[in-house]
Amino acid sequence: MALRHYTLDFKLSTPVDSATTVPHLLSIFHEQEMTETVHETNGHGYLGTFVGKNGRLAILRVHSHGLVTVDLQCYEEDNIAQLDNLLNALETKLKMILNVNITRIKRLPALVRGAEVDRYWPTTDDRLLEYDMDQLVYEEDSPYQNIKILHSQQYGNVLILDDDINLAESDLTYTQAIMGNGRESYAGKEVLILGGGDGGILFEMVKQKPKMITMLDIDQKVIDACKKYMRRTCGNILDSLEGDCYQILVQDCVPVLRKYVQEGKTFDYVINDLTAIPISTEPEEDSTWEFLRLILDLSIKVLHPSGKYFTQGNAQTMTEALRLYEEQLKKLSCPVGFSKEVVCVPSYLEQWVFYSVWKK
């Protein structure tokens, strides 16, 4: 059973006395058959809770520093019209009482907690986003990660790995960016894709008629889920693990990369779609940074001298993490150059950075 949480905030130019404010509001709560309990705040204004029928709970705070807040919680099945009337009455009464002292009023849509389909996901810098997710299409734990596919009315089906939004069917711009945004010709070239289990890169790449694409992804369950539920992204490319110009190897990419290094095998393009740059700013202590450095080093070793390495970075707001990644590029076994571009990926709802790296 989901819970709806409403908020109503009044920002004030000067503090107000709760003794002259609260009594005017009590009748509104009493009309809703809600019982007041006053709590000790140790000099930090007024705090009252009001409990009513059907599990309703209201929290009224008159803060000592010029802020009045109302929180209203109810079950999703409650009478929404009655709740709107309660909030409207409180807002109207507070406008009358506080009058010229008000600098801002903010009333947000209800936060729905505990719903069957989770619609709230954080950005990389911990801002909360609400999506229009309305259906859990698929969920399963593989030996490597939790896999979810949720349906969004705007973005289509959305692949979520370990509670991190990876790719939606709307996100062709991601795939185009990690392939160089149309600036590269893959015709007749040898291409290595690391990760990419959603099939988006592979599906777009075969259209370019390369000589051969090798895709390495460790998780068969991701491939199977996307083959069935992400077809706007992958088309029919995942229906078979091999085709005229591609092969999908369901293996850990690290030993395969080491084998390619030993054999002297090289690729014209390496596209790393394994993971974003870690947001941790401790690259010497974070195991994800260690993995990233290993993949980067091995990828450059199997890259043809005139080839290019493409990868996603992270959100544009993660400036320190991006700076640290660029420092890692300077520490590789051979000197490299790089460029980056910022792209809007629809389902991410934040600007995303992509890198192109080449040997000097």
From TrEMBL:
Assembly and interaction partners: Homodimer. Dimerization is mediated through the N-terminal domain and seems to be required for activity as deletion of the N-terminal domain causes complete loss of activity.
EC number from the UniProt entry: 2.5.1.22
Catalytic residues identified in the record: D273
Catalytic activity: S-adenosyl 3-(methylsulfanyl)propylamine + spermidine = spermine + S-methyl-5'-thioadenosine + H(+)
Family: Belongs to the spermidine/spermine synthase family.
GO molecular function: spermine synthase activity
Pathway: Amine and polyamine biosynthesis; spermine biosynthesis; spermine from spermidine: step 1/1
GO biological process, one term: polyamine biosynthetic process
Keywords per UniProt: Acetylation, Phosphoprotein, Polyamine biosynthesis, Transferase
Name listed for the protein in its UniProt record: Spermine synthase
Domain of life: Eukaryota
Domain PABS positions: 119-359
Pfam families: Spermine_synt_N, Spermine_synth, SpmSyn_N
First-tier enzyme category under EC: transferase
